Amino acid sequence: MVEISGSILSADFANLGKSVEMLTVAGVDYIHVDVMDGSFVSNITIGPVVISAIRQYTKIPFDVHLMINASSNYIENFVDAGADIITIHAESEVHLDGVIKKIKAYGKSAGISLVPTSHHNILEYIICDLDLVLVMTVNPGFGGQRFITSQLNKISSIRNIIQKYSLNTKIAVDGGVNIENAKDIIDAGADILVIGSALFKSNNMSEYIKQLKSL
Predict the structure, then answer these.
(1) CA pseudo-torsion sign 70, 76, 82, 83
(2) How many CB atoms lie within 10 A of CB 204?
(3) CATH of 3-213, one of 2.60.40.3140, 3.40.50.1110, 3.30.530.20, 3.20.20.70
(4) Digitized pLDDT (tens) for each residue of the chain, 215 residues in all
(5) N vs C: which end of the chain shows fewer Cβ within 10 Å?
(6) Which residues are known catalytic residues?
(7) Which residue ranges make up the annotated binding site?
(8) Can you tell me which residues form the catalytic site (predicted)?
(9) How far apart are CA 194 and CA 56, in angstroms?
């Protein structure tokens, strides 16, 4: 069964704690937190202080997606804030293996994310050390964008690499995911659907999640 990571990028930022509670009650498996620095991507969102403040509102894992430059300098901050999974961008670091080792040294799960223009082959040398690969299916920076269909082939290719090495690495897909395209994404090889806009716009968040998990 596919897992759901509820993205708070589309939540009411004046009531983030309440939004985290809503997602938890609705049945998500993770809370997806997008951290943006205004440099790696043009938008600016939240940092460790806010993550620490909303951590108390749920016991489910925090899936923290760092869309920032020099992410290696801030790993400890996000660990201390309550991150359970820390995903960095392949495009933001020269020595990915070193950052992954740093994350794992804190006992946290480590992931690598790829923007739509990045080729999946960049993962092969490091995938054996990854708990998660996050495939961006929109250009990162803002919620509510349209899913880039060509990324389905990338998801399938990454699934083939994972199977090639008999790994337990999970594939998460983030960007424009909704009930209409979820089946295609799952069939391509996704384990986790990161969903924000579609969840918060739904009339019944719990029922929406049940429908996704039944696909």
Answers:
(1) positive
(2) 10
(3) 3.20.20.70
(4) 999 999 999 999 999 999 999 999 999 999 999 999 999 999 999 999 999 999 999 999 999 999 999 999 999 999 999 999 999 999 999 899 999 999 999 999 999 999 999 999 999 999 999 999 999 999 987 777 899 999 999 999 999 999 999 999 999 999 999 999 999 999 999 999 999 999 999 999 999 999 999 99
(5) N
(6) 34, 174
(7) 7, 32, 34, 65, 141-144, 174-176, 196-197
(8) 34 (proton acceptor), 174 (proton donor)
(9) 21
**Each residue of 114-144: b (16+ CB within 10 Å) or e?**
bbeebebeebeebbebbbbbbbbbbebbbbe
For the chain, give every domain's residue range. Answer: 3-213
Token pair for 114: 């790829």
Nearest Cα residue to 205 out of 2, 1, 3, 6? 6
Give the N- to C-terminal CA distance of the chain in Å, as an integer. 8
> Tokens representing 81?
């804030």
State the binding site for a divalent metal cation.
32, 34, 65, 174
Chain centre to alpha carbon of residue 147: 15
Tokens of 47: 């940092």
